[in-house]
Amino acid sequence: MTTSPQEPAIEFVSVSKSYGATPVLSDVTLAIAAGERTVICGPSGAGKSTLIRCINGLERHQRGTIRVGGETLTGAASSLRHIRAEVGMVFQSFNLFPHLTVLENCSIAPRTVLRLTRNEAEERAHTLLERVDLPGLAGRYPAQLSGGQQQRVAIARALCMQPRILLLDEPTSALDPEMVQEVLDTIVGLTDLGMTMVCVTHEMGFARRLATRMLFMDEGRIVESGTPAELFEAPRSPRLQRFLGRVQARP
Amino acid sequence: MSVLNAPLGGYGTQLAEGLILTLRVSLCSYAIGIVFGLLGAAAKLSRWRSLRFGAGLYTTLVRALPELLLVLLAFFLGAGLFERLAVSTGLALDGFSLSPFVVAVVALGFIQGAYITEVLRAAVLAIPRGQHEAAKALNLPPLTHLGRIIAPQALRHALGGLGNIWLNATKDASLVSVLGIFSDVLKVSSLAAAATKRYVFFYAVAGASFLLLTFVSMALLERLRRRLMPVNLA
Amino acid sequence: MSFSWDFFWHDVLPPLLSAVPVTLALTLLSALGSVLLGIPLSVALGAAPRWRRWPAQGYSLLMRGTPMLVQIYLIYYGLGSLIPREWMRHSWASPVLRDAFWYGLTALTLNETAYVAVILKVGLDAIDRGQHEAAAALGLSPISALTRIVLPQALAVVFPMLANEFILLLKSTALVSTITIFDVLGTANNIRFETLRVDEPLVGAACVYVLLVGLVTLICLPIERRLTRHRSD
């Protein structure tokens, strides 16, 4: 998957999806350039999670076209695997593998998918665990870690695949309040890697720090798009104004 | 019944009679199993350690031994022992002997009783403590407590397990074919197969007969479940 | 006829104990086979398309709805009658085709597969959907995801049920004594026929089976502990 500088990293063209009779995404069109950090916000049920889960094929869109890194998403298993090797994901409920140690969690995909040797994979894992500030926990099991630690391991695990695009689906929504900050700081600390990032979150202060671009979604549509400053200081649509009025900012 | 004879190589009537014998064995052994199970569960839940220990020994031993071996033990050892005991204590006249049907059915019932004990015990223990406390607070007499509070609720919890044990009972009934003197559906099938050399056919017929029993049982159990549990217990 | 301890110790127990390997071989081999076959069957039982699910459910119903004895006879006499006489006598496969052991093993394995698949399915269903998603998001192939992520967790969850099932399997192996296999019960019956003594062989067999079941139960305890060492509960 190689993208020329002009080609968007992620592209949606008139994408729609429904669960039965209920529309979840309605005619969504957007282009995210390589290196952009996009934060998607909006009320519950707006389709934010569905949108990013469509990017790596965890949800299948019904109409329209999705292109990731120039490659079109079809249902084919091989195209999915290509895309997933370059797209990493951090889940709301971490989804660490409980029967594997922290080190094994991070090294299993590099070893089986990228065919790294055990040493190479473990070296990479150690480097990234240091990056998320968890150097000594390689031998522990997820059940022995706090929620904040588990999520940081999940971030390291995704980074071990050296993805060009990182998706984050409400990474702090399942955490106890006192652990949210450490995870948000960790994510902001990744900006120097230059990855394209798409993050769904309710943390508005964090959105301001991280995002180069923000999207506000409601009822399956992108209602507003712009820089964080534009959305926070000068919201144009009444829906966004109402939404911002109800959301508190955390740095 | 003779209309069945033609497609079944002339054995239709015997097979049908064999199926009826299998059904009789299943029903009688299950009924005896319920008796053993009630006694066993009562013993396991009782205050006296000796009873609990005895019941524990019963269930552990029975569940550790192959059913076929238990049936053989009952037939060759148990029956004789019982007969000698009955005669020596004067309960029976000299020359008393149990009918093979009774021996087989009691043996199978003894086996099922061990499993039913466990099911009933778990069902009674599944009743929330609050039920007993409320009954005591209301000063309900013990028989009412047992009959109208414990029993109905335990039955609901036990239904699944009891149903499974019945399905096993219908299959275990096939063990009597090994004893040689019973013409159950499997024995008849074996004889027919050996006589006509149509092994696959007659054993398939035997299998189909048991499948029939299974399907009918499952349908009846489902109906029973729906009648006894119109509302799902929380 | 009173119980003869001398006969018991010298003429019953030794042959019975030397038949234990046969019983254990039948148990272990069919346990292994049923797990290997049970994995794809359990996946099929939970599959979304009907054409994959119905055959699996049909097989399961057939195996669990008919007595083990019927299945054993069907395979031994039925399959045996279908194999051409030439193959039986003069082919390279003769030792296998003429030995009742393999027929008994086949019947046991086919039957046990159905029960193991049901248990494995309980385990697979218990695994959080997020585990599948995380494995997929990391790019793991479906086979890798199954063997490295989902199945190990499922096995840990249902191990007690599997252990119990394999004890039932151990007891079921006694049924193959009806097709001339000299397992523990088969040997005991043989002693009965040859010596016309009934008490000692049957009691001896009972003792041996109780010992075997106790042994298997003891072995399963440390295995269960190792499989669940990652749990915090």
Explain the layout of strands and helices.
The complex is a heterotrimer of chains A (251), B (234) and C (233).
Chain A (H helix, E strand, L loop, with lengths): L9 E10 L2 E11 L4 E5 L6 H8 L7 E6 L2 E2 L4 H10 E4 L11 H11 L5 H14 L15 H13 L5 E5 L7 H12 L7 E5 L3 H7 L2 E6 L2 E6 L1 H6 L4 H9 L5
Parallel strand pairs in A: 3-8, 3-9, 6-7, 7-8
Antiparallel strand pairs in A: 1-2, 1-4, 4-5, 9-10
Chain B lengths: L11 H33 L4 H16 L2 H22 L11 H26 L3 H9 L4 H31 L12 H12 L2 H30 L6
Helix pairs in contact in B: 1-2, 1-4, 1-6, 1-7, 2-4, 3-4, 4-6, 6-8, 7-8
Chain C lengths: L4 H14 L1 H26 L4 H16 L2 H15 L2 H6 L3 H5 L1 H27 L2 H9 L4 H31 L11 H12 L3 H29 L6
Helix pairs in contact in C: 1-10, 1-11, 2-3, 2-7, 3-7, 4-7, 7-9, 8-9, 9-11, 10-11
Gist of the model:
Chain B is mainly α. Chain B contains eight helices and no strands. Helix content of chain B is 76%, strand content 0%.
Average the pLDDT over all residues of chain B and give the rounded result.
88
Low-confidence stretches of chain B: none
CATH fold category name of chain C:
MetI-like fold
CATH class of chain B: Mainly Alpha
Radius of gyration of chain C: 21 Å
Molecular shape of chain B: globular
Give start-end ranges of low-pLDDT stretches of chain C.
none
Number of strands of chain B: 0
CATH class of chain C: Mainly Alpha
Total discrete domains of chain C: 1
Task: Tell me roughly what share of residues is in helical segments of chain B.
Answer: over 70%
Could you spell the SSE succession of chain B in H and E letters?
A: HHHHHHHH
Average pLDDT figure of chain C: 90
Question: Biggest interface in this structure?
Answer: B-C, 32 and 36 residues
Helical stretch tally of chain B: 8
CATH homologous superfamily label of chain C: MetI-like
CATH-level-4 superfamily name of chain B: MetI-like
**Strand residue percentage of chain B:** under 5%
Largest sheet of chain B, described in full?
A: none
E-strand count of chain C = 0
Please give the alpha-carbon distance between the first and last residues of chain B.
48 Å
